[in-house]
Design brief:
The protein is α+β, with helices and mostly antiparallel strands. 25% of the residues lie in helices and 18% in strands. Among the domains are: 19-96, no CATH class; 111-185 and 191-220, no CATH class. α2 (33-51) packs antiparallel against α3 (56-77).
């Protein structure tokens, strides 16, 4: 990572770059499934080349192969649906960003919904309640559950297989079959999120008999608000009973951020170390 103590020119990371949705859609050509990985990884490695990241010259072919091996088989088997028009819109959003050696997803205002569906490009086909292949916390963007749900294991019922669990909104009832999920909230890179508290959290109690949690989805708290655990905080960090800034802390220069991060109004992951 280059750390020269300077602040590079960049747009805000809290609400995406400024763009006209009609302009993004105008004149776009659908991207066929077999071309998607070439488009995506070509963009990734052009950024790495511009930033002087090591290993760029030899990595493109491996990046395309890795992308195709993870994305093509689930689509071809019918587990995942692919939208070529959404793929074109997603790539247009990515190419419009100016990350300046920052991890690009940290500067485009990517939402949880974008994370789950790659900007609407991919979406599972198994409805809520259906069985699925559990990939662990954070694996939901590539599981076979329909958008607005995620593949999960109910650890209170260890004998049950993994299943698709529906996300519900703020104010809705939440339990082991309904996870809190404000999928339009901004996903902040560097923060650890729980799959059952995405942009919101379940204000409930545990039933000691069944081991299930029953409650109501609440909006997450801002820095400075009181908290009990990390899930209650929009920053993902509850410190000594108060929501605090963490890896997304405000900064004025790269020197304010830790190794592998750089300053773009907030500390964000550096391209070469994270992409």
């Amino acid at each position: 990572m280059v750390d020269d103590g300077s602040t590079r020119d960049a747009g805000p990371i809290d609400g995406s770059f400024s763009r006209d949705a009609s302009a993004v859609d105008a004149g776009l050509q659908p991207i066929a499934l077999e071309d998607f990985c070439d488009e995506l990884m070509g963009w990734v490695f052009s950024l790495r080349e511009d930033c002087g990241c090591p290993g760029t010259a030899d990595g493109l072919a491996m990046g395309i192969e890795s992308c195709e091996s993870s994305r093509l088989p689930p689509v071809e088997s019918g587990q995942i649906a692919y939208d070529p028009d959404a793929a074109a819109r997603w790539m247009a959003r990515l190419r419009a960003a100016t990350p300046h050696c920052a991890y690009p997803y940290a500067v485009i205002g990517r939402t949880f919904r974008d994370l789950q569906t790659t900007g609407g490009t991919f979406g599972g086909t198994t409805p809520a309640g259906g069985s699925c292949a559990f990939e662990g916390v954070g694996g939901g963007s590539w599981d076979e559950c329909v958008p607005d749900s995620t593949c999960s294991i109910d650890f209170s019922q260890s004998s049950e297989p993994a299943r698709c669990v529906q996300y519900v909104g703020i104010g809705d009832a939440c339990d082991n079959d309904h996870y809190c999920g404000d999928l339009d909230a901004i996903y902040v890179e560097g923060i650890s999120y729980s799959e059952d508290a995405v942009g919101s959290w379940c204000d409930g109690t545990d039933d000691p008999t069944s081991g299930r949690t029953i409650g109501t989805c609440r909006a997450q708290f801002a820095p400075g608000d009181p908290c009990v655990n990390n899930e209650q905080c929009a920053t993902g960090y509850c410190s000594s009973g108060t929501c605090a800034e963490y890896l997304a802390a405000r900064c004025t220069s790269d020197a304010d951020c830790g190794t592998g991060f750089c300053c773009r109004e907030r500390c964000v992951p550096h391209l070469c170390d994270n992409f």
